[in-house]
């Protein structure tokens, strides 16, 4: 068994692309090997900022032999067929074929073979093909070359069983040719060296300060970090995204800890962590008491020869510069009230045709304190709501105010967070500050309706307003284009409504948004323009929400049929109920006897296909016992349904299952389409009763036929 | 001893002159970045090889802080290099230039961190990196893929060094006004602040408070129209110059707070249209010559 390894030396590959590149390389290699009939044992793909490569073991010395029997025309068949067959197989005479006797007769067979090429030769093609077709998210050209690659490709190392696998890439004035040489760490050990085995490669690279295996690099990074942390009795909360990123920014990870001037520690935690993580890729640290430490941890690509003093000092300086700005903004921002900042929103356009952000704030004020807010509060168990609506007015207006502060201007990711801090300092009520904070933290808004109802109201009001606004302008997301993040807004609404068990109809919420827009139109300083009617907009929104719900359920693993059936008419009236229905259907469909029952439903449904009218049952027209039994069972189920609530799905399915035997008996012994019209209609009416009972629970009419072809 | 500000410039000029670059003088016009110089934008288009290097003072009115912020200036200096086609050993050359100006690779952590540069006003895009030195950005390193909406063939290497930032690192000072400009000590020393502090103070006041927005807007429209007219007469370089003027006027209007977020896109679009037209005309002339 032979092995092959290669390394594509590239100018620094973006950190965020390396993981996907490894995954894609593995998929590509597998596909290539399979199509070229090369068996293999294992494919291991590695990357560093400057390298993308793989090690493949268990390869044969040559391709698997290819033999295929192609059946041609019948022996003694027409000349035309034989000529056509010879042509299609690119052969000249029947002497290259043999005859084969099959159950269908005697046929001409041609045995097609392909010569087995040596693995080394095939690898040359594969490597070249991969380089020319690699799916980087973004590509560039360089110099006079035409090869699209993520960054300039500098060297190709490719070795199969100690021999170089030849690969040439044309770059205009020069060619990149594969070899058995590579280079080490750019600064610590950059001179080239040769390797003839993968073991040689990884060991030599390590000696030259390169850790080519990402998992190993991460492990060593953390080990080295731990040593530094222990020296100062600090701990690190591992942020896995940041860790992945910094691991992909170095070939030789060295950990250093820098200090933060205590004057900056008065800044809000989020300001510190955002400056550190987002801009500088630093890790924030905790003291042994669990508080945020005036230190940060960062990863360098090499050890500094002066114990890292220059490196640490440089990083401390840049962080201090950023935090100086942040401190300046923090102090400056507090000189004005949130209300003032809110008024400054007059200068911020929301979107052409939808007015300014000030207009939005006024609409939110209306929504949060009006019928919209009231309807949401009605879902609470606690009663006292009046005070809340007054607060709703305030928080609706202030929710977006921090967008005009300097801090949010510098750190847009801190919107909402800064508003809540400034609000608190100003002395606004706790729940108002929470609501400003929570509006962008949907995942936290679970069971908030009792404790922080304002947060629920604001989060919904903002998203409903945004969605309604853009949809009213006809700006509906398509395929991959969703520039206003409307899908996210809709998902946010679904999540908040679901997690807080709000039974408010979606149509109601959007109608309120519509009224808020209409109300503004009448005001002279509003820049909102005329748009479509509520009916049209709501229709589009309904479709949009249905799509989002479908995708959500699919992601959670619900079967297609279950998802389809969940969309009973009026599904949008109660989202939590919608999800409960889906869950109940899921359970129901997994039960073995549900299949039989569904089969019966389907049978009834198909008989009723051409019946347009609603028919009434007349018990005096019953002739057979089976009709009476079915009728009695139906009455019983109807009675039970009358007592049960909408959400008692499990109960209802149980009740429906009692219809199985009477239905089976009915279908076995009763003929529906008899000559006597009255009796026929009556029997159809019975079936209609059956199907409508089913459909009152879920939309069984949407179940695919195939589910029923498997007879019990 | 660390390089003075002017020695830093001399060293970079000498280094790139050795690589065959034509060391030019800055464009004698206000602009936001060295990229706007015709020696970058226009020369990046077309097949003819080109190598140049120059200092470009850059005007960014919105960044002014009256000379009170130690690291922010409304006028700063970039050292700009353009080499077409991009050399095979581009990165190595760049690193050598850092060594030349005194950056010790055994003590400093140099990194190439993904940054794909785009200029909406120029319709330009490239792939490359921010170069970090101990966490601080010292250069922008870009392989131009398109300019004025036109694909670059061959691809050019553009290097932009942030001179103040680099000088502050080399001289180990924390505020720009402390930088030693002429390399002398004692009474003969001339600092960056000695030269530019007044500029920062007075221009910040002008940019943020005083500039006459009506006049600025009128000039914008006139520059725009002139650029269009000149292109019709096939005078690409004068037309491009008017485009640059319009771009700077837009920056001034923005600093004055005259341009709302909604209007911004419109202005950028107008400058971009001028830039694109100039690039297209340029390439037409290049192809015909």
Protein described:
The complex is a heterodimer of chains A (about 700) and B (about 290). Chain A is about 50% helix and about 15% strand. Chain A is α+β, with helices and mostly antiparallel strands and about 700 residues long. The longest helix of chain A has 25 residues. In chain B, strand 6 and strand 7 form a beta hairpin. In chain B, strands 1, 2, 3, 4, 5, 6, 7, 8 and 9 form a nine-stranded mixed β-sheet that branches. The longest helix of chain B has 28 residues. The radius of gyration of chain B is 19 Å and the shape is globular. Chain B has about 290 residues and is an alpha+beta fold. Chains A and B meet through helix 8 of A and helix 3, strand 4, strand 6 and strand 7 of B.
What is the element layout, followed by pairings?
The complex is a heterodimer of chains A (712) and B (289).
Chain A: E1 2-10, H1 18-35, E2 42-48, E3 51-59, E4 66-74, H2 79-88, E5 98-102, E6 105-114, H3 119-133, E7 153-160, E8 163-164, E9 168-170, E10 175-177, E11 181-183, E12 192-194, H4 198-207, H5 214-231, E13 235-236, H6 240-247, E14 254-259, H7 269-279, E15 283-286, E16 292-300, H8 309-333, H9 338-344, E17 349-351, E18 355-356, H10 357-369, H11 371-377, H12 386-398, H13 406-410, H14 417-426, H15 430-438, H16 448-451, H17 453-472, H18 486-499, H19 506-521, H20 534-555, H21 560-566, H22 575-590, H23 592-607, H24 625-643, H25 649-657, H26 660-669, H27 677-695, H28 706-709
Antiparallel strand pairs in A: 1-3, 1-7, 2-3, 4-6, 5-6, 7-8, 9-10, 11-12, 13-15, 14-16, 15-16, 17-18
Helix pairs in contact in A: 7-8, 10-11, 10-12, 10-17, 10-19, 11-17, 12-15, 12-17, 14-15, 15-17, 17-18, 17-19, 17-20, 18-20, 21-22, 23-27, 24-26, 24-27
Chain B: H1 5-18, E1 22-23, H2 38-41, E2 50-59, E3 75-84, H3 90-100, E4 110-114, E5 118-119, E6 124-133, E7 136-147, E8 150-151, E9 157-162, H4 163-171, H5 192-210, H6 213-232, H7 236-255, H8 261-288
Parallel strand pairs in B: 1-2
Antiparallel strand pairs in B: 2-3, 3-9, 4-6, 5-6, 6-7, 7-8, 7-9
Helix pairs in contact in B: 6-7, 6-8, 7-8
């Amino acid at each position: 068994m032979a092995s092959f390894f290669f390394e594509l030396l590239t100018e620094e590959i973006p950190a965020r692309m390396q993981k996907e590149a490894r995954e894609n390389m593995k998929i590509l290699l597998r596909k290539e090997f399979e199509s070229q009939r090369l068996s293999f044992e294992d494919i291991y793909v590695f990357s560093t900022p400057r390298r993308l490569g793989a090690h493949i073991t268990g390869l044969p010395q040559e391709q698997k032999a290819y033999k295929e029997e192609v059946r041609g025309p019948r022996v003694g068949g027409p000349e035309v067929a034989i000529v056509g067959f010879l042509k299609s197989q690119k052969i000249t005479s029947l002497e290259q074929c043999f005859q084969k006797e099959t159950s269908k007769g005697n046929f001409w067979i041609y045995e097609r073979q392909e010569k087995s090429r040596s693995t080394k030769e095939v690898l040359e093609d594969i490597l070249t093909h991969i380089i020319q077709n690699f799916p980087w998210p973004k590509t560039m050209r360089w110099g006079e070359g035409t090869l699209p690659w993520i960054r300039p490709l500098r060297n190709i190392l490719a070795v199969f069983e100690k021999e170089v696998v030849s690969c040439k890439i044309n770059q205009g004035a020069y060619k990149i040719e594969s070899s058995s040489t590579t280079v080490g760490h750019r600064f610590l050990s950059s001179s080239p060296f040769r390797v003839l085995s993968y073991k040689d490669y990884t060991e030599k690279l390590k000696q030259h300060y390169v850790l080519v295996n990402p998992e190993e690099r991460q492990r060593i990074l953390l080990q080295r970090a731990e040593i530094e942390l222990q020296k100062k009795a600090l701990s690190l909360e591992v942020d896995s995204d940041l860790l992945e990123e910094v691991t992909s920014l170095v070939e030789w990870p060295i950990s250093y800890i820098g200090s933060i001037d205590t004057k900056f520690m008065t800044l809000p935690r989020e300001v510190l962590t955002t400056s550190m993580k987002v801009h500088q890729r630093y890790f924030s640290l905790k003291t042994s008491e669990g508080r945020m430490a005036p230190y940060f941890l960062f990863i360098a690509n090499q050890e500094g020869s002066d114990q890292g003093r220059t490196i640490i000092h440089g990083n401390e300086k840049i962080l201090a510069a950023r935090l100086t700005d942040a401190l300046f903004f923090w102090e400056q921002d507090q000189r004005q009230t949130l209300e003032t900042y809110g008024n400054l929103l007059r200068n911020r356009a929301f979107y052409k045709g939808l007015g300014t952000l000030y207009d939005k704030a006024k609409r939110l004020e209306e929504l949060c304190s009006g019928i919209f807010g009231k309807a949401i509060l009605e879902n609470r168990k606690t009663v006292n709501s009046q005070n809340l609506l007054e607060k709703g007015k305030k928080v609706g207006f202030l929710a977006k105010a921090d967008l005009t502060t300097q801090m949010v201007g510098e750190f847009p990711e801190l919107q909402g967070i800064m508003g809540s801090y400034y609000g608190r300092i100003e002395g606004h009520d706790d729940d108002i500050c929470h609501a400003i904070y929570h509006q962008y933290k949907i995942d936290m808004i679970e069971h908030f309706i009792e404790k922080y109802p304002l947060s629920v109201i604001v989060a919904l009001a903002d998203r409903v307003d945004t969605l309604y606004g853009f949809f009213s302008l006809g700006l509906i997301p398509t395929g991959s284009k969703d520039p206003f993040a409307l899908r996210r807004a809709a998902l946010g609404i679904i999540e908040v409504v679901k997690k807080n068990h709000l039974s408010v109809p979606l149509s109601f919420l959007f109608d309120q948004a519509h009224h808020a827009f209409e109300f503004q139109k009448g005001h002279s300083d509003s820049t909102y323009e005329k748009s479509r009617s509520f009916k049209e907009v709501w229709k589009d929104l309904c479709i949009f929400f249905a799509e989002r719900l479908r995708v959500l359920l699919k992601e959670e693993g619900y079967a297609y049929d279950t998802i389809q059936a969940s969309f009973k008419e009026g599904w949008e009236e109660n989202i939590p109920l919608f999800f409960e229905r889906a869950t109940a259907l899921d359970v129901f469909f997994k039960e073995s006897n549900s299949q039989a029952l569904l089969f019966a439903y389907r049978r009834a449904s198909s008989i009723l296909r051409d019946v347009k009218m609603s028919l009434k049952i007349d018990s005096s027209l019953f002739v057979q016992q089976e009709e009476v039994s079915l009728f009695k069972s139906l009455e019983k189920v109807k009675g039970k349904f009358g007592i049960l609530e909408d959400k008692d799905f499990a109960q209802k399915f149980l009740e429906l299952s009692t219809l199985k035997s009477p239905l089976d008996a009915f279908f076995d012994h009763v003929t529906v389409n008899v000559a006597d019209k009255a009796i026929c209609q009556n029997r159809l009416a019975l079936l209609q009763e059956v199907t409508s009972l089913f459909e009152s629970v879920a939309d069984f009419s949407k179940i695919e036929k195939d589910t029923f072809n498997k007879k019990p | 001893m660390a390089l003075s500000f002017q020695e830093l410039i001399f060293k970079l000029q000498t280094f790139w002159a050795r690589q065959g670059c034509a060391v030019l003088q800055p464009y004698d016009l206000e602009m936001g970045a060295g990229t706007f110089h015709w020696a970058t934008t226009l020369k990046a288009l077309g097949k003819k090889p080109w190598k140049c290097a120059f200092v470009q003072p850059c005007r960014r009115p919105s960044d002014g802080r009256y000379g009170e912020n130690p690291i922010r200036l409304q006028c700063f200096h970039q050292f700009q290099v353009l080499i077409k086609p991009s050399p095979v050993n581009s990165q190595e050359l760049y690193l050598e230039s850092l060594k030349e100006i005194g950056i010790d690779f055994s003590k400093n952590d140099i990194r190439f961190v993904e940054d794909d540069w785009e200029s909406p006003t120029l319709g330009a895009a490239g792939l490359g990196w921010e170069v970090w030195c101990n966490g601080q950005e010292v250069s922008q390193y870009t392989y131009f893929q398109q300019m004025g909406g036109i694909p670059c063939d061959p691809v050019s290497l553009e290097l932009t060094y942030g001179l103040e930032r680099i000088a502050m690192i080399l001289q180990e000072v924390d505020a720009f006004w402390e930088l030693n400009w002429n390399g002398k000590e004692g009474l003969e020393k001339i600092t960056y602040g000695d030269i530019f502090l007044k500029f920062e103070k007075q221009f910040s006041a002008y940019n943020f408070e005083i500039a006459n927005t009506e006049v600025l807007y009128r000039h914008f429209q006139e520059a725009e129209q002139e650029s269009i007219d000149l292109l019709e007469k096939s005078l690409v370089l004068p037309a491009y110059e008017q485009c640059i003027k319009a771009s700077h006027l837009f920056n001034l209007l923005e600093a004055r707070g005259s341009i709302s977020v909604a209007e911004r896109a419109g202005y950028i679009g107008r400058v971009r249209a001028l830039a694109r037209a100039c690039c297209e005309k340029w390439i037409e002339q290049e192809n015909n010559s």
